[in-house]
Amino acid sequence: MERKPVKFEGSVDTVLPSKPHWHRFIPIGIFIAAILVHSLIIFFYLPPVQFQKYTIASRMYLNEELPKERLFDFSPLYLYMHIVLQKIFPRTDVIVQWLQIVLIGFSSVLLFYLLLEFFQLLVALFGTIAFILNYSVVIYTQAFEPEPLLIFFLLGFVFFAARSRFVSHGIAGFFFGLSFLTRPNFLAVLVAVPFYFYFRQGKKKRKCLISTALFLAPVLLCIGVLSGRNAVILKNISPMTMNPGTVFFEGNNPNSWGMSSMYPPLIEELSGQYPEQPDYQHELYRMFARRIAGRNLSVPEVNSYWASRAKNFITDHPMRFVRLLGKKLLHFFHAYEWHDLLNTYWNGKKLRRGWIPTIPFALISAMALFGMLIQRTEWKRSLLFYIIFFCQFILMLVAYVSSRQRVAVIFIFVFFACSTLQYLIKSRKRLWVLPLLALFCLLLYVHTDFMREEDHLWESTRASRQFLRASFQNRGEGHFNEAARLSAMAAAAAPWSIDSRRLTNLSFGTAGFVESALRVVFPQTASRRFDRAALYIEAGKADEAAKIIQQLIDEGHEFKRDYYQSSEPYFYLGRTAAIRENRKQSVELLQKALERTPGDPSVLAHLSALTGRSEYRDKLFRYFDDISAHFYLGRAHLKNKMPAEAVDNFLYVTRKIPEFRRGHIYLAAALGEAGRYEEAARKYIEGMSLAAEPVMLEEEIISVFQKLSEQSQNDVDRLYDYGVVLRQFGFHSQALRVQREGQVLDASNPRTKQEIASLEKILLLQRERE
Questions:
Q1: Residue 259 in contact with residue 400, Cβ under 8 Å?
Q2: Which among 96, 372, 717, 750 is least buried, having the fewest CB atoms inside 10 angstroms?
Q3: How far is it, in rounded angstroms, from Cα 481 to Cα 765?
Q4: How confident is the model over 61-116, as pLDDT tens digits?
């Protein structure tokens, strides 16, 4: 077939078939194919569940319910887009979804043209298809997140910057400015743009200066607009947004493994109390920092506070930071997708298990690595691809390498992968590269313990919540025994959430809640065995737990439990020694755990409690906020039978965060263990007034109210409270007996009458269901 060169403006000659110009219809076909593929997958294959952060935030903004400083938490352009669309259209979600699909269609066409400037037609088509069918691109086109806009603006920037006309360079600046208003990730790229123009225009300084000026004008305008908004609304003239300090903390705190956002545990837990608030963790970051400081810190000061916690940890443990960078480096290129949004994780899993075709990312990634070396001979032409790639790469190494961050540079992976493909096509002598590619593909595809743990956390948390919902439903229908069984299954599925898995009014017989959870048997993977050991420790069965943990250590497994619980097996061995009251051995094992995972808050807290040495306590406060540090210390003191110290810690927590329900209940348990029963009862009732369930710390809480009722045997109120607590923990017959004792003392007490009626109904339903 005869071929002739076809000139593209500002580019090298690109070879295209000369026949009846059918090639002109390829971009239209690509656009239609991209829209068709994505719309079919999104509307007919993936579930419609969305993370409605921007939808809720825009609605609150329009209703004047969104605090002004919360604007700092969102992508400016994407949020304002939602606001405008909500004002115009009744079905904003459908409009946004179609807009994102169309933008990916345009992005596919731009990518095709860019690839065509460097590679032959078939290679360019391969790269475009790889982009369209990439699972991450599909997932984030469906998600209500700014990534589709960011991808389109970046591709528009590169496409127009590569043209020769000055007006194109102004348009490139417009696209880059919009990308900055979407996410500020690529601001450093500005440094490279003048050099790119200089090389592309034959090193002519005058032309370079004109191109750079035209490019920078719209970019500076966008930066100025954002700075002006921040100055007026947030009293901060900086153009920065989206909380870089807290993002840095999330990727580098001692609980973080650098693959996704890792919040402080109490902030993550408290955010669940505000389901109607979009991405409320950011507001809680500010709340914690301000209440600790005792003054109204500015947003930059809050960011500085959290960033300093991570910097302290990195300064104290530089080698751990280096190892963390190594993990991030591997997972940046690895095929496994690290998600930090619920819907994106499950959508990704559905795509991987289904029939949707794709070009495996491990192959694209391996080819991209080779392509970066191959393309180095033309680095001046490829400069923008290199700079965008490494800008995002470095940013992700500094923060975390989640799939949401990586999807913005998928088109760069594709570009360099195409370079490798064309290199192989040109000569058979180059096929020696194939075995190396196959080896790299294998390395970038094989799952590690960390990846299996990540799947375990997502799947177990989901299963646990499903069991809990079913338990709620059965209890509401009067099936108390089935509800209890499901509640125990919820705890067994996710033992790290045991404090939130026991519903009120459910009886677990003589075995008790934890023993009931231990009776649940799941397939015994390494992760499930680790869970079982944690349950044994909760039940006080040190020997059984130690046996499992030692086996897991001998087998060389690694665990990743994020902010849910300690990931270090030696911590649990230390706990088993403490249960046996062998304090010396416990300290030795905990010190070994600290050597392996420096900064682990659970390890530091228990070492501080057991040794009394200030170095462990000081580190806990250097790496975490004061509230979380006190909570960790309080739990460690309580578990190691040091209630007086635990009281001081939990008092601080509840003073600073009075809305934290679990803090009040733990304080009640500590006060009870310290013999301060009156205060303990008040704190428990205060905590339960925040939410009626779940219940936790059975032995400690029941003991408080039992002691009080014994001290005041003729006090109807004491008997009533004791009976209510017994009922809450599922001891219905005993609770009924206590309430009847109170009725004998005061037959007209309406609260006692109502409680007796409720207990009689529960017991009747239980007998009927047996």
A1: yes
A2: 750
A3: 10
A4: 999 999 999 999 999 999 999 999 999 988 889 999 999 999 999 999 999 999 99
Using alpha carbons only, give the angle 586, 591, 592 rounded to the nearest 5 degrees. Answer: 100
**Burial track 655-686 (b if 16+ CB lie within 10 A, e otherwise):** ebbeebbbbbbbbbbbbbbbebbebbbebbeb
Structure tokens at 320: 């751990």
How does DSSP classify residue 73? G
Q: Is 10 left (phi over 0), alpha (psi -120 to 50) or beta?
A: left
Q: Establish whether the linkage from the previous residue to 694 is cis, with ω within 30° of 0.
A: yes
Give the bridge partners for 17, in sequence order. Answer: 3
CB 398 within 8 A of CB 115: no
Q: How far apart are CA 460 and CA 451, in angstroms?
A: 14
- List of residues 6+ apart from 604 with CB closer than 8 A: 594, 616, 617, 619, 620, 632
pLDDT in tens, 606-643: 999 999 999 999 999 999 999 999 999 999 999 999 99
Among all chains, which residue has been given the structure tokens 């806009």? 149
Could you tell me which residues come within 8 angstroms of residue 764 by beta carbon, excluding any fewer than 6 positions away?
none
3-state secondary structure 630-667: HHHHHHHHHHCCCHHHHHHHHHHHHHHCCCCHHHHHHH
> Between vectors from CA 30 to CA 390 and to CA 345, what angle results, nearest 5°?
55
Q: Where are the alpha helices (DSSP H) in 15-165?
A: 26-44, 53-62, 76-88, 92-118, 121-132, 135-142, 147-161
State how far the Cα of 414 lies from the Cα of 110, in Å rounded to an integer.
13
Handedness of CA 156, 157, 159, 165 (dihedral sign): positive
Residue that is written with structure tokens 């239209």 in the block = 28
pLDDT, mean of residues 219-231: 94
CA-CA distance, 526 to 556, in Å (whole number)?
10
The model carries a pTM of 0.93
Mapping DSSP onto H, E and C, the string for 5-52 reads EECCCCCCCEEEECCCCHHHHHHHHHHHHHHHHHHHHHHHCCCCCCCC
CA–CA distance from 506 to each of 483, 509, 511, 616 (Å)? 7, 9, 13, 40
| Cβ atoms of 127 and 417 closer than 8 Å | yes
Q: Residue 61: name the closest of 73, 50, 45 by CA.
A: 73
Interval 423-433: pLDDT, tens: 999 887 788 88
- Assess contact for 762 and 756: CB atoms under 8 A: no
- How many Å is the Cα radius of gyration of the chain? 30
CA dihedral 598, 603, 606, 609 (to 10 degrees): 10
- How far apart are alpha carbons 259 and 325 in whole angstroms? 10
pLDDT tens profile 688-730: 999 999 999 999 999 999 999 998 878 999 999 999 999 999 9
DSSP string, 467-489: HHHHHHHHHHTT-HHHHHHHHHH
C-alpha 483/C-alpha 470 separation (Å) is 7
Q: Which ranges of 162-260 would DSSP assign to H, the alpha helix?
A: 166-182, 193-200, 205-233, 244-252
Single-letter residue type at 495: P
Which is nearest to 391 in space by CA: 187, 193, 252, 125?
A: 187
Q: Where are the alpha helices (DSSP H) in 280-382?
A: 281-293, 299-316, 318-333, 342-353, 361-374
Which pLDDT value is given to residue 276?
A: 86
Under 8 Å between Cβ of 640 and 582? no
Continuous segment of H or E residues that includes residue 340: none
Cα 236 to chain center, whole Å? 28
Encoding tokens for residue 91? 């079905």
What is the Cα–Cα distance from 531 to 548, expressed in whole angstroms? 10
